[in-house]
Each structure stands twice: as C-alpha cells, then as structure tokens.
Specification:
Blueprint (H helix, E strand, L loop, with lengths): L2 H9 L4 H12 L30 E3 L2 E4 L2 E4 L13 H9 L12 H14 L10 H16 L6 H15 L8 H17 L3 H21 L11 H20 L6 H20 L21 H10 L11 E2 L2 E2 L4 E4 L4 E6 L2 E6 L19 E5 L2 E4 L11 H7 L7 E3 L7 E2 L3 E2 L5 E9 L2 E8 L10 E8 L3 E9 L5 E6 L5 E4 L5 E5 L5 E6 L5 E7 L7 E9 L4 E7 L1
Antiparallel strand pairs: 1-2, 2-3, 4-5, 6-7, 7-8, 8-9, 9-10, 11-18, 12-13, 14-15, 15-16, 16-17, 17-24, 18-23, 19-20, 20-21, 21-24, 22-23
C-alpha cells in the first residue's frame, strides 16, 4: 500500500474540526497572561473526597520513576531533554505524585518541585505547556490543594496563568480523551478560583463536557475509544467531577450532575464486564496495568461519593434478555462469556470511533481467557507509544489471539496512532445450547487481499471447556490462528503436534486439541505495563484448508 493510499484511507474519516483545528493549533500560539490569580472560592459544601491514590512516582527530591524507568532531574534542561522518551517527559510534568500513595511524607520534596517547575519552565514553552500535560497538572495541583495543602501566592499565580493558556489551547484537533481532560481541568480551576474570570473557565469547561460526554460515553457505558484502560481513566474523571460538585454545591446545575452520575453508573457496569477475575482490566487496544485505577478502586471511590456498586453483569444485549453467563456490550462491540471456572472476553466490534482510532489495535475477533481466576490466553498489551517498529508490532494482528491472513493486519494500523482501511464485523449472533453459551462473528478486514477472504469465528464455552472454530471464506494463500499464553502458563506440544497440555501457575493441568493441521510454538513477549516486556509462548496453528479448530478442556 502506497503512502498516499494510507493517508487517503486515514484522513477520509477525520472530521473537519480536526483538520482546521490542527492548522490553527500549529499557527496560533497564545501569549501567556501573567496577571495575578483571582481570589479563591470559598468552600461552603462538603469536603474533598480523596480519589484512588496511584503509585508513588517521586523516589527522591529530584528522582522519578515512570514507565519502568528511573531518572534524575539534574538541571533545568532535563524537563525537555530531547534524548528522553516523550511520554516519560509528559509524566514528569503531570505531577501525579502529589496525590499518590504516601504523598504526605514527600510533601517537602513536592513543594520544592512545584517551585522548581515554575522557575524552570518559561510560560508557553516546552512539554509542560502542551495542552494534555497542562490539563493533568492543573487537576493534580487543584486536587492537592483541596486536600488541605496551603498554597503559596506564586503557585496560585502560576496556576491561573496555566488556566488562561489552556483555555485558548483546547485540543479540538485531537478530540477524545484529550479534549475531555482539557474540559475537566477548566472545571477544576473554574470552581477553585472565584470571580468572573474563573466563571468563564467553568462555563467553557462545562460547555465542552455537555457536548463530549454524550458522544464519548456510549449507551452501553463504554468509552468510545474502546480501550479499557482509557475507559477507567475517563471514569475517574467523571467521578472527580462529581466530587467537585459536592465540594462546591450549587455551582453545577442539577441536570449536569445527574448526567455525570448516570454516565458514571453505566461506566462502572461496563468496566465490571471488562475486568478479569484477577481484578485487572482486559488488554484490548492500548491497555496496561499501572496507569488507570482498578475496578475495585473505582467502585470504592464511587461508594464514598454516595453511588451504589455496579451490577454483577449486564443483563441486556441488543434489546434481548440473555443469561447471566453471557453479556454483550453492543455499542462497544465486546462480549463476556462466563461459565464454570472460565471467563472469556471477545472483541466483536468496530474500530472506533472512526475519526479517532489512535488507540486502536488490529485485533478484531481476538479474545482473552481466564481460568480458575488466572489469566491463560492474553493479548500482548502495550509497553510503548511512538512510531517505532515495536509499537507497530504490538498493534498488529499477530500480537493478538485471532487469525492472520497472508501475513497482513486485519486493520491497517500504522504511524503509531493511525489506521487506514479497517475491519468491519459481520453477522454477529449469540445464543445457548444446553449448559453452554456461544457467540459467532465475522469481519471483512482481509477483503482487500487477493481472493477477497473473510474471517468467521465461533466461540462455544461450557463448564468443561472452550472450542473455537475459525473459517476463511473466499481464497487466501496462507492463514494462521495465533494463541498467546500468559507467561506463567507452561505449554507443551504432543509429538503429533495436534494437541498438548497447559499447566497453570497453581499446578492446574489443561488439555488442548486441534482437529486439523499441526501446531507450532513460538516465543514472543507480553507487555503488562509501559516499559515492561515479559517472554511468553504463542501457539501458531496454520490452516490446512479453509477451517481450523482449537479446543481447551478443563
């Protein structure tokens, strides 16, 4: 595929605001406004409820650990060092440690660091003044101050300057979670400060949220970028907004807070459905541990804000009542099958949204499987961003538990955060057969290839096992089903290579079988956290004809 064709199939999905917004973003740079900060708004309502505390990031006065890398901030230029990873530098500017576990014992370091950031980062210049890290830092500073820390006048003046700059630098060219973070930050400073200027920040943030919340949060409760990790981040954002509304009663309309509460409730249900028995989220699209709060942390946060716990499982799918062992998230395109010791999560949906696929992977009809509370079949996760070959590999179809045709990706992921031609699901069906539940779906992502192949898959799960039936409609030269196992799973092939055993970490033994062909084992890597790579085994099953069968018995 030529570079021109890639750009054409990528750009044709964009919204006009993204195109002219990018031009405006590049050409216009607001002048920082250094006027003194407005007065603080008097807190006349409830007290700030502490959100889930993340991992400590500040290991010493100027030593930080992000993305599994530890570095020391030696001089002012280190805030923007070109030889350090961009995402690591972004994290440096977030100030997440202010509200992390055990933050109180690091207060002296944190106060010194705020003063140093102000001194070392000239207004409007460097990574820290880009809208996304700017938004996250504003939120972290405000929440830290609401938690009871006495502000210095210079901090407040800087915070107001950051708010003024952000208000003229919203990320309309990106939309999605970035724009949501911008709006959340404006609401924070708009409530924290008082007066007409603060009211204008608050009104601007609420206007964006009024437009974005109904679009970004789907009817089934999922965030429209379809990443469980970003979903959890956005859920915390919504809960933070509800928290603020309780601290400053009467400043947010009742209809808006009702909308936020409804969204948070649906999002909790969705995250429950997309969480494994080990309490961790599923690795579809860009997802990793250690970035977003867990389901348990978010449920606890919601309860402390006066909300109820999520339902045990969704009970409706496409308007039809289904048994508790089956949950379909119809707007997100995910399914959860649960029976006996097994939980299976499958991707049967679109890449979405079409105009914002930056976190999408080529993983249509992939799945993950947990047994006896342990992860067994896993997608490869996410360890890096950027445009390098490893980022491309982790987004590719071969890094997921689905079928690769002619060595190609089912959706044309490229450039780190871009997607050209995309797979579209076909013929989604589900049902029950006795004590078993099943789901089947196809996709047309390979129709661009010679022979115009289509991939169809059927999962059937019961109390004693799982069977997977793959079929390729049309013609193809070569097709391979790939199954990636958790690093703790020991995989052994029988001499005939048509079956074998899986041994789980707790010693549980499982048997797997192929109905056709002969399997082979390959060593690959699993990426549970940014900056982390763990070796694991991938079972490759070449097609011998148009169909392939794989089963696991427990």
């Amino acid at each position: 595929m030529t570079l021109f064709a890639r750009y054409f199939h990528t750009l044709r999905h964009l919204r006009p605001v993204q195109i002219y917004g990018r031009l405006w973003f590049r050409l216009y740079r607001p002048r920082p406004d250094s006027r003194p900060a407005p007065p603080l708004r008097i807190v006349a309502g409830g007290s700030w409820v502490a959100p889930p505390a993340g991992e400590p990031r500040l290991l010493g006065p100027v030593t930080f650990r992000f993305l599994d890398e530890t570095r020391t901030l030696a001089d002012p230029g280190d805030w923007n060092r070109p030889d350090w990873d961009k995402l690591w530098l972004y994290n440096l500017h977030y100030f997440d440690d202010l509200n992390a576990e055990g933050a109180g014992v690091r207060r002296e370091w944190q106060c010194a660091l705020i003063a140093r950031w102000i001194a070392d980062n000239p207004p409007g210049h460097g990574n820290g003044w880009e809208p996304y890290p700017l938004s996250l830092r504003i939120v972290n500073w405000v929440q830290w101050l609401l938690a009871g820390h006495a502000p210095q006048p210079s901090w407040l003046d800087s915070l107001a300057m950051q708010a003024r700059y952000l208000a003229r630098r919203l990320e309309w060219h990106l939309l999605g979670n970035h724009l949501f973070a911008n709006a959340k930050a404006l609401v924070h400073v708009g409530l924290f400060f008082d007066g007409s200027e603060a009211d204008s920040w608050l009104a601007a943030g609420l206007r964006v949220l009024d437009r974005q919340l109904p679009e970004q949060i789907l009817p089934d409760g999922g965030h429209f970028e379809l990443s469980p990790m970003y979903h959890a981040i956005l859920l915390k954002d919504v809960l933070d907004l509800l928290n603020l509304a309780q601290v400053y009663p009467g400043r947010i309309g009742a209809s808006q807070t009702a909308q936020w509460r409804d969204a948070a409730s649906r999002m909790l249900d969705w995250l429950h459905a997309m969480t494994h028995p080990d309490g961790g989220l599923a690795f579809f699209n860009d997802a990793a541990f250690g970035i977003a709060p867990t389901l348990a942390e978010l449920v606890d946060y919601a309860r402390r804000l006066g909300m109820s716990a999520p339902a045990a499982a969704l009970s409706e799918a496409g308007g039809s009542t289904v048994p508790s062992r089956f949950a379909l998230l119809p707007d997100s395109g995910y399914a959860r099958l649960q029976t006996g010791p097994a939980v299976l999560l499958a991707d049967v949906g679109m890449i979405g949204p079409e105009y914002l696929p930056g976190h999408a992977h080529a993983d249509t009809l992939s799945f993950e499987l947990s047994l006896y509370g342990q992860r067994v079949v896993v997608n490869s996760g996410t360890s890096c961003y950027g445009t390098g070959p490893e980022r491309q590999r982790q987004r590719g179809t071969a890094a997921h538990n689905t079928v690769v045709v002619n060595g190609q990706d089912s959706s044309e992921v490229w450039g780190g955060f871009r997607v050209a031609r995309r797979a579209r699901p076909l013929g989604l069906r589900w049902g029950e057969e006795g004590a078993e539940a099943w789901i089947e779906c196809g996709h047309d992502g390979y129709r661009r290839l010679p022979g115009r192949p289509l991939h169809f898959r059927r999962w059937q799960i019961g109390v004693a096992g799982l069977s997977i039936h793959d079929r390729i409609g049309g013609g193809c030269r070569h097709a391979v089903a790939r199954y990636h196992f958790h690093p703790t799973v020991r995989v052994e092939l029988n001499p005939d290579r048509q079956g074998g055993t899986l041994q789980l970490l707790d010693g549980t033994a499982l048997a797997f079988r192929l109905a056709t062909g002969a399997a082979r084992m390959a060593t690959t890597t699993w990426h549970p956290r940014f900056g982390t790579s763990e070796p694991n085994v991938c079972l490759e099953i070449p097609f011998n004809g148009p169909e392939a069968y794989f089963s696991i018995r427990w």
